[in-house]
Write a structure and sequence with these properties.
Blueprint (H helix, E strand, L loop, with lengths): L1 E5 L6 H14 L12 E5 L3 H10 L3 E3 L2 E6 L14 H9 L3 E7 L15 H31 L6 H15 L11 H10 L7 E6 L2 H6 L4 H12 L3 E5 L1 H7 L4 H10 L6 H12 L2 E7 L3 E8 L4 H8 L1 H5 L1 E8 H7 L2 H6 L4 E3 L9 E7 L2
Parallel strand pairs: 1-4, 1-5, 3-9, 5-6, 6-7
Antiparallel strand pairs: 2-4, 8-9, 10-11, 10-12
Helix pairs in contact: 1-9, 4-5
């Protein structure tokens, strides 16, 4: 699962990405690796893994991971090929969701590409380019569908959806703002429209504001904007995150404590990104290894088993599941079994976040 980090020049996008990659490099259990020069893989924070590792005396702990793609900078006219526009837009097509970094700080030493600090204008510059690209795609699709619909009346519904999308974009609103039915969503997802991809806004503030005024006037405006399209806003100081990412775990905890914070902005960002993608984790644990596995919400047991190995899905018999809190509360598997808290689930069981699982299979 890949998220694209976007933003105008000098908003802190690269600083934040560097913090992400540095954090990954410091992770003993899931080291940062470079798939391409601008792609970073970093572990998803999950305190449950530490607890289970200690409880079961596991030899190693393996968190699940998420990919962040540092997408090329954007200028006005990207949809027409200006600057790195074509590259920028093609890279966004490859990601499942967008992390949009917005400048919400003032610093006379850091120039703004537009000559002023205006987070809503920054957001709209990028969103308009995404919508213009979608407009071109939808217009072509409508022309094609209209011709086919003359002979195939079943395409009328598709034509209605496409027309709704066209009217929405022409009104200056992203496709995300449309409330589609579940059946319609499947069709729209296949269109791979840029302004339909889920988005998370990251309000980048100064160190001073983080400590004294985390919801400054700029941030409030971003939150108001995001609310209109049911998007989430995470407030971070990219500069502080870059400093934190270079620290060892103990130093990091001490630094956060001194700042009066319980978790880093980067941890909040990673967890929010995980949620944005509609992901969750199930857990496996034992003497050799405690590991988190990523699945989509709504995944059934056999498909979850397939995440571990395809043979486990093919030969799935049952899943032995215990709730994480129950397992920890009992102090281990034997005690959980004695209390009847380990359940046997079949092929139709829908996995829940934090399920601790042993899959039984036969091939």
């Amino acid at each position: 699962m890949k998220l694209g980090i976007v933003g105008l020049p000098n908003v802190g996008k690269s600083t934040l990405f560097n913090a992400i990659t540095s954090a990954g490099a410091e992770s003993a259990n899931y080291p940062f690796c470079t798939i391409e020069p601008n792609v970073g893989v970093v572990s998803v924070p999950d305190k449950r893994l530490n607890v289970l590792t200690n409880l079961l005396n596991s030899e190693k702990m393996v968190p699940t991971a998420i990919e962040f793609f540092d997408i090329a900078g954007l200028v006005k006219g990207a949809s027409k090929g200006e600057g790195l526009g074509n590259k920028f837009l093609s890279h966004i097509r490859e990601v499942e969701a967008i992390v949009h970094v917005v400048r919400c700080f003032e610093d006379e030493n850091v120039t703004h590409v537009e000559g002023r600090i205006d987070p809503i204008s920054d957001i709209e510059i990028i969103n308009i380019e995404l919508m213009l690209s979608d407009l071109e795609i939808i217009s072509r699709r409508i022309q094609k569908t209209e011709k086919l619909a003359k002979a195939d009346k079943s395409l009328q519904k598709e034509l209605e959806i496409l027309t709704t999308i066209l009217n929405t974009i022409e009104a200056g609103n992203s496709v995300r703002s449309i409330d589609f039915s579940n059946k319609e969503k499947a069709f729209v997802r296949d269109l791979n429209l840029l302004s339909y991809k889920p988005i998370l806004y990251v309000a980048n503030i100064s160190e001073e504001d983080l400590l004294g005024n985390p919801e400054n006037d700029y941030v409030k405006r971003v939150i108001e904007y995001a609310d209109k399209e049911n998007s989430e806003v995470i407030v971070v100081s990219a500069q502080i995150e870059a400093e934190i990412s270079e620290l060892e775990d103990e130093e990091k905890r001490s630094f956060l404590s001194d700042l009066g914070l319980t978790e880093s902005g980067l941890d909040k960002l990673i967890n929010a990104s995980y949620k944005l993608l509609g992901l969750m984790s199930f857990l496996t644990t034992g003497p050799k290894e405690t590991r988190a596995w990523t699945i989509k919400m709504g995944t059934k047991a056999p498909q979850a088993a397939g995440k571990i190995h395809s043979d486990m899905e093919k030969g799935f018999i049952r899943a032995e599941i215990v709730n994480y809190n129950d397992l920890v509360g009992c102090g281990g598997y034997p005690q959980a079994r004695e209390k009847g808290l380990v359940r046997l689930e079949g092929k139709e069981y829908v996995m829940q976040d934090g399920d601790v699982v042993v899959f039984r299979f036969n091939v």
